[in-house]
User: Fold this.
Amino acid sequence: NPEFDAAHLNFGWLYELEGKTALAKEYYKRAYILGKGGSIGNLAAQRYNQLTETELKNKYLQAIKHSFRFR
Assistant:
């Protein structure tokens, strides 16, 4: 069922475990939209935000490492 929020959440987890974060975030986003206000939607939002935070931290650390190489 394309409107089943838990299925989208599970696909998000699957893709996250495979390291396909962009795809995982798309599924988390869809799970959030479908399950908004419920536990599935809340969990999808948490996973999406955690992935985004991790991506930003990694980009920040890479930028710092890169800037030290060119000093």
The longest helix spans residues 39-69. Helices lie at 5-17, 21-34, 39-69.
